[in-house]
Design a protein that fits this description.
Order of helices and strands: HHHHHHHEEEHEEEEEEEEEEEEEEEEEE
Strand order of the largest sheet: 2-1-3-4-5
Structural class: alpha+beta
Largest sheet: 5 strands, mixed
Shape: elongated
Radius of gyration: 31 Å
Mean pLDDT: 78
């Protein structure tokens, strides 16, 4: 390595006076003139040019790194300098990956993606993309193909556009049942399930789903994410001892984080406000006795579809009808009265309800309350207010932005 290259790698800038021809280099005036240019341009021009030249540089060097190169020493990833986080994010964005939950990825994650994305080949197949995700996110993930069965029940409400009994393949890669080409009902789908061994550890399910759709093969659809934990039970504290005399062990854990192929779980709830009591006007179907009504209160989760509509999603526990000693005086829904605290501006939602599955999430046990027909606003006689509810106990649901059909039933939505 010659002196010029070594000085360049070590960050030393060559003075412009070396460009002077010999007859000018002997003149102190011209030497001082070029030195003055160096002093003025150093921070105003040269440094900015260096920054622009290194915007796409994935391996930002420093004197420590350069000295190790000169000494033929082994380099560690930590030796390389990190650009500013904003530049790291923009580097990945320029490569075509626009991750929404940027704050959940570390600088090392971003730098790994920007450095090695070019080495990843999209045509390598299912296992190649999961290996790249593991490398980039420092994770231990596995991917499993999902299988479905033919719907043999002609009276079933399962749509022709939804898979029936979506089930992951066995651990050895074999189908969960007899495949169609052997006379059985099972056939492979383009859906896959990701198993996170030891949990997600530092990255949330939404970010992983976004990363999946940025890097995975175009035909693949993420059905769910499963956290897998290996918990040996031992009665000794000796390393390597995995045997135990166990009388009884009980462990319950619901590991599936269901990802919808259409919209997004975990959307922020619509805004709520306090009101001066409990409204007596309710959306309900005609012919339903007022004393049998069940009020809809806040759900444990909201679902956001591509059109920006928010649907309340209830799990098994929150769909249980409960009798309350008191009702909340906070409500979700925009008032139709200029005074947002006036009761006349709110219409509650009262069942009994039917339920539909969350669009694009056939494996989820979440359900959206629905009606067979669009309910109408009715005032209960004598101001009777139901005291039974489904959902939480802090906020009533009222004044949906509209009604739309899902699976043949009418469901409310908010904006």
């Amino acid at each position: 390595m010659n002196d010029y290259i070594q000085q360049f790698r070590l960050g030393y800038r060559t003075p412009r006076s070396v460009l002077l021809p010999p007859y000018l280099a002997l003149n102190d005036y011209y030497v001082e003139f070029t030195d003055a240019i160096d002093n003025v341009w150093s921070t105003m021009v040269d440094t900015k040019i260096d920054v622009l030249a290194n915007l796409r540089n994935m391996w930002v060097t420093n004197p420590t790194v350069e000295q190790k190169i000169i000494d033929d020493e082994m380099l560690d990833f930590a030796d390389w300098s990190h650009p500013e986080r904003q530049i790291l994010v923009q580097q990945v964005n320029l490569l075509g990956m626009k991750l929404k939950s940027a704050g959940l990825l570390t600088n090392d994650n971003y730098q790994t993606i920007s450095r090695f994305l070019g080495f990843y080949w999209f045509g390598k197949g299912t296992q190649a993309f999961i290996e790249f995700i593991n490398f980039a996110l420092i994770a231990d993930l596995e991917v499993h193909n999902m299988w479905s069965t033919l719907n043999a029940d002609p009276s079933s409400t399962v749509s022709n556009f939804e898979y029936n009994n979506l089930t992951r393949e066995n651990d050895d890669g074999t189908p969960p049942g007899t495949p169609m080409w052997e006379g059985g009902p099972w056939f492979p789908t383009t859906h896959v399930e990701i198993t996170a061994n030891g949990g997600l550890q530092g990255i949330d399910a939404e970010t992983l789903a976004e990363f999946f759709y940025e890097i995975a093969n175009y035909n693949l659809v993420l059905a769910s994410i499963e956290s897998s934990y290996d918990l040996p039970v031992v009665d000794t504290n000796v390393e390597g001892d995995t045997t135990a005399t166990v009388v009884a062990v009980g462990l319950y854990f619901d590991p599936n984080v269901v990802i919808s192929t259409i919209g997004r779980y975990g959307a922020d709830a619509p805004s709520s406000q306090a009101i001066n009591g409990i409204p007596t006007t309710m959306f309900r179907t005609a012919g339903t006795p007022s004393q049998s009504n069940v009020l809809l209160t806040e759900p444990p989760s909201w679902f956001l579809d591509p059109d920006g509509r928010k649907f309340p999603v209830y799990d098994t526990a929150s769909m249980v009808v409960q009798t309350q000693n008191w009702l909340p005086t906070d409500t979700i829904g925009v008032s139709t009265n200029p005074d947002p605290e006036e009761l006349s501006g709110y219409t509650l939602i009262a069942g009994p309800f039917m339920y539909v599955t969350v669009p694009g999430a056939s494996r989820s046990d979440g359900r959206i309350p629905a009606f067979a027909v669009v309910p109408t606003a009715q005032t209960n006689p004598s101001g009777i207010i139901p005291t039974t509810t489904i959902g939480g106990r802090t906020t009533l649901l009222s004044n949906p932005a509209g009604w739309t059909q899902l699976a043949g039933l009418w469901v409310p939505y908010w904006n």
